[in-house]
UniProtKB/TrEMBL annotation:
Official protein name in the record: UDP-glucose 6-dehydrogenase
Keyword Translocase carried by entry: no
Active-site annotation: 279 (nucleophile)
Keywords recorded for this protein, A-Z: NAD, Oxidoreductase
Transmembrane segment boundaries: none
Database matches in InterPro entries: 6-PGluconate_DH-like_C_sf, NAD(P)-bd_dom_sf, UDP-Glc/GDP-Man, UDP-Glc/GDP-Man_DH_C, UDP-Glc/GDP-Man_DH_C_sf, UDP-Glc/GDP-Man_DH_dimer, UDP-Glc/GDP-Man_DH_N, UDPglc_DH_euk
Species: Filobasidium floriforme
EC primary class: oxidoreductase
Swiss-Prot/TrEMBL GO biological process terms: glycosaminoglycan biosynthetic process; UDP-glucuronate biosynthetic process
Length: 469
């Protein structure tokens, strides 16, 4: 029979572990939830008396306020947390390998393995171990092997895969009402019992029919598949945007018409400057690597094309800016609005803004940047590739501004990279007055009111429309 879960520990207080387990604590007041991390400053931020949490997510502060100190705790005492728990979420980072076999494609499982070995070492009672980080297929199997080889007598470990599908910016909404929760387990009695124990935790707030239970490997593959298929939709619509620009069709009209087909559906068909974020590219490339390692070269090539198309889209957009500005941006001032990879987040991982600004800098433009949620220090880390490039020339060419108005002052062109709502209703007339003429706007998200801007006198370039300027 399934055990009743009373204490949960989550290893890793990052983007996934933090919000996920905070919501578990909020919704399950009878369960004690401890989130542990080796990173002291991150834990300190989660414990901040003024709730300046380490990540920005709408609604997150209220969740943490609702249960921190009651049944939600943040700590660096990893071993103690593990020893006390009956269920362990492993939510550590799985970055892409930078060297060795599979460099650039495969996930680096070092952190998972270290955490797994730690669990084996300090556990003196049986545990359900839940793989929450996204990992390649069969990682659960490796974790099981490590745990079983190192288990103390009388300790058994049941491994579950429970991938997280939340999107940043809507993490709390997604966690409160997910489309589905997916739990993978071995199909043995013990595996099914462990699965039921975790399902019972989620059943505190999620309707039973949304809790899907499948085999371990289906669960692991589903996470990669979901991300790769969403990325594929965006690449598909972006590749149509290039055709629209060449023909005079309008990609928003095309996407709307296509999405009305209930077999296709309307979501994730917004043409853009290219997708960013820590997930789409990474998991598409993980899938490419998986296919290659299974000797499925055609399959690998199919998924690789999704990422290639995204690179092409980013490049195409950067080139269009240069072409439109009479083939040179040397010494010109380009105002970049938005640096986060999407709206409502301060996250900049794989943001298209990074590639675009690098392109503008290589053409020796001056760049101003404004983003409501991204700090200057983060922008500099991204543009210097975390110190790999010398900071001085970048600091000279790039100015981070406290407002959109400030960033646009005296610019030759404005480039909208992130779809922050506040950009739609800026005082565009005043901005136009301060700019060099002709004043160009490149709308990388198709969010601006094109006709109004044209009436003011802007030359407007959107994604996926032949009707230019
Ligand atoms: C298709 C479009 O559906 C229709 O809107 C358009 O007007 C004409 O082309 P059709 O070719 O008649 O219609 O059949 P459809 O049901 O779309 O199936 C096309 C092929 O895809 C079939 O071979 C079908 O077996 C296959 N298919 C369909 C799959 O392999 N998997 C699926 O999930 C769906
Ligand atoms: C994604 C998945 O949506 C989520 O299920 C998974 O758990 C993690 O990866 P996330 O990366 O946080 O979430 O954000 P998402 O909303 O999916 O956007 C990813 C990127 O695609 C962003 O850069 C976004 O701007 C872009 N995008 C999204 C488009 O360009 N067009 C669209 O139609 C949708
Ligand atoms: P994700 O987006 O997957 O949540 P993050 O990088 O935001 O990834 O968070 C992962 C967290 O896991 C980091 O804060 C890191 O310090 C933590 N971590 C990694 N390995 C361990 C470990 N062995 N024990 C405890 N915490 C760990």
């Amino acid at each position: 029979a399934p055990i009743e879960v009373k204490k949960i520990v989550c290893i890793g207080a990052g983007y996934v572990g933090g919000p996920t387990c905070a919501v578990v604590a909020l919704k399950c007041p009878h369960i004690q939830v401890t989130i542990v991390d080796v990173n002291q400053s991150r834990i300190d931020a989660w414990n901040d008396p003024d709730f300046n949490l380490p990540i920005y997510e709408p609604g997150l502060v209220d969740v943490v306020k609702g249960c921190r100190g009651r049944n939600l705790f943040f700590s660096t005492e990893v071993d103690k947390g593990i020893a006390e728990a009956d269920l362990i979420f492993v939510s550590v980072n799985t970055p892409t390998k930078k060297s060795g076999l599979g460099a650039g494609f495969a996930a680096d499982l070092n952190y998972i393995e270290l955490a797994t070995r730690r669990i084996a070492e300090v556990s003196t009672s049986s545990k359900i171990v839940v793989e929450k980080s996204t990992v390649p297929c069969r990682t659960a199997e490796s974790m099981r092997t490590i745990l079983e080889a190192n288990a103390k007598p009388g300790c058994r470990f049941d491994i579950l895969s429970n991938p997280e599908f939340l999107a940043e910016g809507t993490a709390i909404e997604d966690l409160f009402a997910p489309d589905r929760v997916l739990i993978g387990s071995l199909q043995s009695q013990e595996g099914l019992d462990a699965c039921a124990a975790l399902a019972n935790v989620y059943a505190n707030w999620i309707p039973k029919e949304r809790i899907l239970t499948v085999g371990l490997w289906s669960s692991e593959l589903s996470k990669l598949a979901a991300n790769a298929m969403l990325a594929q939709r965006i690449s598909s619509v972006n590749m149509l945007s290039a055709i629209c620009e060449a023909t005079g069709a309008n990609v928003d009209e095309v996407a709307y018409a296509v999405g009305k087909d209930s077999r296709v559906g309307p979501k994730f068909l917004k043409a853009s400057v290219g997708f960013g974020g820590s997930c789409f590219q990474k998991y598409s490339l993980n899938l490419v690597y998986l296919a290659r390692s299974l000797n499925l070269e055609e399959v690998a090539r199919y998924w690789y094309a999704v990422v290639e198309a995204n690179d092409y889209q980013k490049n195409r957009f950067a080139k269009k800016v240069v072409d439109t500005l009479f083939n040179t941006i040397t010494g010109k001032k380009i105002a970049v609005l938005g640096f986060a990879f999407k709206a409502d987040t301060g996250d900049t991982r794989e943001s298209p803004a990074i590639d675009l600004i690098n392109h503008f800098l290589s053409e020796r433009a001056r760049v101003t940047v404004y983003d409501p949620e991204v700090q200057e220090s983060q922008i500099m880390l991204d543009l210097t590739d975390y110190g790999a490039k010398p900071a001085e020339p970048i600091q000279k060419a790039v100015t981070v501004c406290p407002s959109a108005l400030e960033a646009c002052k005296g610019a030759d062109a404005i480039v909208v990279v992130t779809e922050w709502k506040e950009f739609v209703n800026l005082d565009w007339q005043s901005i136009h007055d301060t700019m060099n003429k002709p004043a160009f706007i490149f709308d990388g998200r198709n969010i601006l009111k094109r006709q109004e801007l044209k009436n003011i006198g802007f030359k407007v370039v959107s994604i996926g429309t032949g009707d230019r300027l």
